[in-house]
């Protein structure tokens, strides 16, 4: 089982996004504890630097891109 969450906090106005991703992380942790005894492996991915979404403000997008040596 694989969950995909996020390690980034986009900025102001992204409370629902951040809560959903944090909840998914906790769900994966509990699933791993509960299903691990049955041999079911649970993993969670926390991708970084995914810029092609509408959740980033222009300022944050430019700052994150610069951090990684990218341009937008």
3D structure, described in words:
Strand 1 (2-4), helix 1 and strand 2 form a beta-alpha-beta unit. The chain has a two-stranded parallel ribbon. With 72 residues, it is mainly alpha-helical. The chain contains two helices and two strands; from the N terminus they run βαβα. The longest helix has 21 residues, at 15-35. It is elongated, with a radius of gyration of 15 Å. InterPro entries: NAD(P)-bd_dom_sf, Sc_DH/Rdtase_CS, SDR_fam.
Please name the defining characteristics of this protein.
2 helices; Short chain dehydrogenase; 72 residues; mainly alpha; SDR_fam; 2 strands; NAD(P)-bd_dom_sf; oxidoreductase
Q: Order of strands across the widest beta sheet?
A: 1-2
Write down the domain tally.
Answer: 1
Count of extended strands = 2
Helix content: 40-55%
Q: What characterizes the major β-sheet?
A: 2 strands, parallel
Low-confidence stretches: none
Gyration radius from CA atoms, angstroms: 15 Å
Outline:
This protein has 72 residues and is mainly α. It has helices at residues 15-35, 58-67, and strands spanning 2-4, 43-45. Strands 1-2 form a two-stranded parallel sheet.
Topology record:
Blueprint: E1 2-4, H1 15-35, E2 43-45, H2 58-67
Parallel strand pairs: 1-2
């Amino acid at each position: 089982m694989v969950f995909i969450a996020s390690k980034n906090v986009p900025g102001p106005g992204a409370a629902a996004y951040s809560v959903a991703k944090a909840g998914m992380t906790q769900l994966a942790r509990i699933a791993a504890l509960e299903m691990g005894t049955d041999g079911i492996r649970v993993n969670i991915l926390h991708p970084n630097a995914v810029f092609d979404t509408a959740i980033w403000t222009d300022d944050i997008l430019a700052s994150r891109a610069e951090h990684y040596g990218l341009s937008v």
